Amino acid sequence: MQKIVSLKCPKCNNSISFYRFGKDKDGYQKYLCRNCNHQFAPDRPIVRKVQDYPRCPVCGKASFIHHDYEHYTNYRCCDKSCNHSFFVAKHTSVDSASMSNLFGKTDFKRMRYPVHLIITALSMFYLGKNSFRNIALIFQIAFNVKVSHTTISDWCKKFAPMFHNFSLQLIPTLNFDSDEWHTDETVVKINGVKHYIWFIIDSETRFILGYHLSPHRDSPQAFSLLESVKTLGKPGSIVSDRYSAYKVPVKSIFDNVKHIRVQSFKDDISNNLIESFHHQFKAWYKTKQGFNSFDSANNLISMIVFFFNFVRPHSSLNGLTPAQVAGLQLSAKEKRKYLLVA
């Protein structure tokens, strides 16, 4: 007995004239409407795709995609009376900050000179602002040790991964849940070409939470910087200048965190804290007279950040390091392990 199938075109509501039109990829019979040429498979089950969009943070109702960009998505509340717009970062599409891309050694094995001599050279360069030639001269006069200035230059760059690993081991024990995090960027030159280095610093501990070196000065670089430090703590607010590149990254990465955009140095809340650090950084940077390559610049900046956070005592912090103010407590043995004492 022939099966009678009642058909109706979903487009023009035709229920009389059809052609059989083969089968779809899943084997369901297709038909072609002779009036509007619409193809359909009436036996195919309808599967509705549920969109997993975040709820509106204001009213809790559903949302839809208003704009979709490379590094973030702009959602808008479906309730027209609310109409709230909010941003969600695409964490997988954000490039990693340059501070996580270092090259060099992770230990002192197979080194020709003793470790204490290498540590002395690093301290003189990153704390004393001496040039490589001055350090080589001091070693020859004071210690009767002849070391080439190029060897000292290699020391100051090649051990950046090792000190970065020390930093990664110590940071989880510190507390950065403070009122404000300050962020700003400054210019450095690499082979005569302008590059931008982005810093973010904790206001209460003076701890440099992260940095990012880039040839560009735009919003994706701010995304990389803020994405790299989002797990370190929960600030009450993030303070920056009025550069527009910070607006969307702060909104999308840090939920319920106030973004303070400083307009003048005379404001109650200013960005003087990180500007003061830039002054210290540039004083060290001038002894370099620019960098020779991106990789060496990235390593050198990583090292000076480590010495600033864990080694150098600050007069504004009563002679403590930023790490100690953030809660770092180490025994004498642990300090020797992480090379924080001679």
What can you see in these coordinates?
Residues 168-330 form the Integrase catalytic domain. This is Transposase (Or an inactivated derivative). One of its GO terms (molecular function) is DNA binding. With 342 residues, the chain is of the alpha+beta class. The protein folds into 3 domains: 1-45, Single Sheet (N-terminal domain of TfIIb); 48-93, no CATH class; 165-337, 2-Layer Sandwich (Nucleotidyltransferase, domain 5). Helix content is 31%, strand content 19%. The chain has helices at 115-126, 132-142, 149-158, 160-170, 219-229, 247-253, 272-288, 294-311, 322-325, 332-337, and strands at residues 18-23, 29-33, 39-40, 63-68, 72-77, 85-89, 180-190, 193-202, 208-214, 237-240, 258-261. The strands form 3 sheets. Strands 9-8-7-10-11 form a 5-stranded mixed β-sheet, sandwiched between helices. Helix 2 (132-142) crosses helix 3 (149-158) and helix 4 (160-170) packs across helix 8. The longest helix is centred in the C-terminal third of the chain and has 18 residues, at 294-311. The relative contact order is 0.11. The mean pLDDT is 89.
